[in-house]
Design a protein that fits this description.
Blueprint lengths: L8 E4 L9 H14 L7 H4 L5 H8 L3 H15 L10 H10 L4 E4 L4 H10 L9 E3 L12 H10 L6 E5 L2 H10 L2 E5 L5 H4 L5 E3 L7 H9 L2
Parallel strand pairs: 1-2, 1-4, 2-3, 4-5, 5-6
C-alpha cells in the first residue's frame, strides 16, 4: 500500500473507463447470443458490468452450455486489441506522479487480464491492487468489489472515488458509499447521473485538485 498521507483512494472500472473495449464486447456478446440463443433481447446491454459467472448463471441453463459459452468468449477475447480511452493514460500517470493509491476493480476474469497485460504491458503498474471477477462472490451492482478495493488500500470507501461507465457499475459505487464519477460512453448522461456525484465525458474534463478536496471533505 502506498503511504501517501492523504487518506483517499481511486477505484477504477476497466472496460469503457480506461480501455476502449465496450464496442468490441458488444459485438462479441451479440455473436455469442446468436450461437447460443438466450431469448434475451440486447443481451450485450443487459450484462454490462456483470461478472462472467453471473452472466453464465443468469442466462445459460445447462453446465454444458455454460462451458461452451465460456470457451467461445475466451476465444473471441484473445482476438481483441486493447487501447486506452482518450486521456485515461494521462490521468493514471498524474495519479502515479502524485503517489495517489489506485485499485482496478473489474468484472473481467484472470484469463482476460493476462491477455490485457500482453496488449498493454504497463497498465497494471498503475495500480496497487487488482480486483478481478474471480475474487468476488457477488457481481456489480453489489458493492463487494469496491469494498474489497478500498480495504486493500486501508481507506474507508467513503474516502474513495469510483470511476464507472455502466449502470451496474455506478450503482455498485453508490452502494459502496463512495464518491462516484460516471463516464459517458456506454450509457448516456441521463441514465447514469442519478447514481453519480458528477458525470464527465473523459478524464480531461476532471479537475483533480477539486476532486481531491471533495474526497477530503467527506
Amino acid at each position: 500500500m502506498k503511504e501517501n498521507g492523504q487518506g483517499i483512494g481511486f477505484l477504477f472500472d476497466l472496460d469503457g473507463v480506461i480501455i476502449d473495449s465496450e464496442s468490441q464486447y458488444s459485438k462479441i456478446w451479440r455473436q455469442i447470443n446468436l450461437e447460443f440463443p438466450t431469448g434475451v433481447e440486447n443481451l450485450e446491454q443487459v450484462i454490462k458490468g456483470c461478472t462472467l459467472s453471473k452472466i453464465l448463471n443468469d442466462h445459460f441453463e445447462t453446465e454444458e452450455t455454460r462451458t461452451k459459452v465460456s470457451k467461445r468468449l475466451h476465444e473471441l477475447e484473445d482476438q481483441m486489441h486493447y487501447e486506452y480511452l482518450p486521456f485515461a493514460r494521462e490521468f493514471l500517470v498524474e495519479l502515479k506522479k502524485r503517489n495517489l493509491p489506485c485499485v482496478l476493480v473489474t468484472s473481467s476474469d484472470n484469463q482476460k487480464m493476462r491477455h490485457l497485460r500482453d496488449e498493454i504491458e504497463e497498465l497494471t503498474d498503475f495500480f496497487d491492487f487488482i480486483v478481478t471477477g474471480d475474487l468476488v462472490k457477488t457481481s456489480k451492482p453489489s458493492p463487494e468489489g469496491y469494498l474489497l478495493g478500498a480495504s486493500k488500500l486501508n481507506i474507508p470507501p467513503q474516502k474513495c472515488v469510483v470511476f464507472e461507465d455502466s449502470m451496474q457499475g455506478v450503482m455498485a459505487g453508490q452502494n459502496a458509499g463512495s464518491y462516484v464519477v460516471g463516464i459517458i460512453g456506454t450509457l448516456t448522461e441521463e441514465k447514469i447521473l442519478p447514481y453519480s456525484n458528477i458525470v464527465i465525458n473523459n478524464f480531461n474534463e476532471l479537475d483533480l485538485d477539486n476532486l481531491i478536496q471533495e474526497l477530503r471533505n467527506r
